[in-house]
Amino acid sequence: MSKANQPTALHPGTRAEKPDPLRPRYHFLPPANWMNDPCGLIQWNGRYHMFYQYNPDGAYHDAIHWGHAVSDDLVHWEDLPIALAPSPGGPDKDGCWSGCAVDDDGVPTLVYTGVFPQTVCIATSSDAMVTWQKFEGNPVIDSPPYDVRYDTGGHFRDPYVWRESGVWYLAIGSKIRDVGGMVLLYRSHDLINWEYLHPLMVGDVHKGDPFCTGTMWECPNLLCFGDQHVLLISLQATPIDHLYTVYHTGTCCEQKFESKVQGILVHGGSFYAPQAVQLADDRWVLWGWLKEARAQGMCEWAGWAGVMSLPLRVMPLPDRTVAVRPVEELQTLRREHWQYEDLTVEREPAQLLSDVKGQRLEVMAEFSFEGEAVFGLRLRCSPDGQEQTRIVYRAAEGQLVVERDASSVSPDVERNDCTAPLQLAPGSPLKLHVFLDHSVIEIFADDGRTCLASRIYPLRPDSLGVGFFAREGSVKMDSSDIWRLDSIWT
Ligand code: DQQ
How many CB atoms lie within 10 A of CB 29? Predict the structure, then answer.
């Protein structure tokens, strides 16, 4: 490895910038500018490293670098110098797109996408991951496999690498023109020389199956849980801005993946391109990119765009569906606490809670209800209700919905409903676990079996109220705990 890479400049921007009421405070995001996918997640010498797609020049996607941060607890982060920057004239001259990190017998190694054209490149570090040297022989894979069956159009990105019995495997996102997305599989003994094996999985955009569709499959991740595997794929569908991540639970036999059960990992249209890492304690934890849902001009005015989801534990269940739950370490953020029990939920518009207000809250609530009830929780509510966001369970439709029609007085934000299917067995309570962080809402319902993430942009400074309401049917709130959460930045 040689050819010094010098992307060690510190981030422009600091964390003590102008107060911004929409900027999340306990979700990770860079000091300023654009971020998208998490990359290169790895636990190294006991610390958690996160890299991410980053544009140091502004709050828009261009000339992508790898930002870098490190944490001791999965929750609080310290910014490190930019890890990778495009090298003029190199295979990544137009950007260092997504990829992963591996431990090559003590040598930290990044495997990433160089553009354009889309290729696989590697870089290593010899100073405990502060600076990175790009391999002088990059790219290590210079194009998708030549195969007359596949017209990939050159779409070939987001390598995900793991080691099995001393052999490296690499899964990478691709597509077959007019057919659908595809994940290709390679093998290597040294991370440099790669042998193409076969597709790990191929979709079919024409079948109308929401789990196998998408014209391009991005950011594959293969998680191993003993004899069961979970394949995560981020689907780029049509129209192009319709992006979502699916999981396939199945088995991997002779390097072929057979999908048995599928689902959408996090509903709502904001969560995309997650990356998962197995920690030393065996937990699989992932972060996803939470996209903005406001006009580009608002992002550029604010000076930032994109935020990481909470760290989420991935747990396959006995029925082979996958639950996603916030990691326990987040409980260290809990501060002021309110508790309620056995309340009859008032009809809409119900009173707001008199003592709870906030932009940074965690809510755990359990409701019992009869029949076709419609009920939920209001957040970021102004006293007159002009601004409010409602998290609603519609029992008859079996839907959990974030109603954003009144979420902001701004005309430049998305205000459509964000919906997730949620069928509860008759008599079962609704269990909601909600995180609010200024412009971010993450919801884990039914112990993480149904997850929904959404973005909201309330502008009124008094949009701080919280309340429960019933629209249809009789509803009881059995218990609820609400905490104000701390900021992760000092
Ligand atoms: N983002 C990266 C690509 C990836 C996409 C570019 C997914 O590598 O396919 O920033 O959001």
Answer: 23
Count H helices, E strands: the chain? 1, 33
Known catalytic membership, residue 462:
no
Please state, as a whole number, how many other Cβ atoms lie within 10 Å of the Cβ of residue 429. 16
Question: Residue 240: its pLDDT value, please?
Answer: 55
Strands of 21-166 (E only): list them: 33-44, 47-55, 65-71, 78-84, 95-104, 107-115, 119-124, 133-134, 156-164
Integer Cα distance of 280 and 299 in angstroms? 37
Q: Per-residue pLDDT for 171 more than 50?
A: yes
Q: Which atom of ligand 1 is nearest to the CA of 243?
A: 11
| Cα end-to-end distance, the chain, whole Å | 38
Distance of CA 397 to the CA centre of its chain: 27
Classify strands 475-485 and 334-344 as parallel, antiparallel or unpaired: antiparallel
Cβ-count burial of 397 within 10 angstroms (0-12 exposed, 13-18 middle, 19+ buried)? middle
Average pLDDT, the chain: 94
Which residue puts its alpha carbon closest to atom 9 of ligand 1? 218
DSSP state of 329: G
pLDDT at 2: 33
Ligand 1 test: best mutation among 35, 36, 292, most atoms within 8 Å of CB?
36
Q: Is 182 in the pocket of ligand 1 (CB under 6 A)?
A: no
Burial of residue 269 (number of CB atoms within 10 Å: 0-12, 13-18, 19+): buried
| Cβ(92) – ligand 1 distance below 6 Å | no
What are the strands of the beta sheet with 389-394, ordered from one edge? 418-421, 399-403, 389-394, 374-381, 465-472
**166: which 2 tokens?**
């001393």
Is ligand 1 within 6 A of the CB of residue 348?
Answer: no
The pLDDT-based confidence of 364 (bands split at 50, 70, 90) is: very high
Burial environment of residue 167 by CB neighbours within 10 A (0 to 12, 13 to 18, 19 or more): exposed
What's the pLDDT score for residue 213? 83
Pocket test for ligand 1, best of 97, 271, 272, 290 (most atoms within 8 A of CB): 97
Positive/negative CA dihedral, 72, 74, 76, 79: positive
Which of 66, 84, 92, 219 most suits a substitution to test ligand 1, by most atoms within 8 Å of the C-beta? 219
Ligand 1 atom nearest to CA at 64:
10
Distance 110 CA to ligand 1 centre (A): 16
**Cβ of residue 218 lying under 6 Å from some atom of ligand 1:** yes
**Ligand 1 in contact with 37 (CB < 6 A)?**
yes
The residues near 313 (Cβ < 8 Å, ≥ 6 apart) are 283, 284, 285, 324, 325, 326, 327
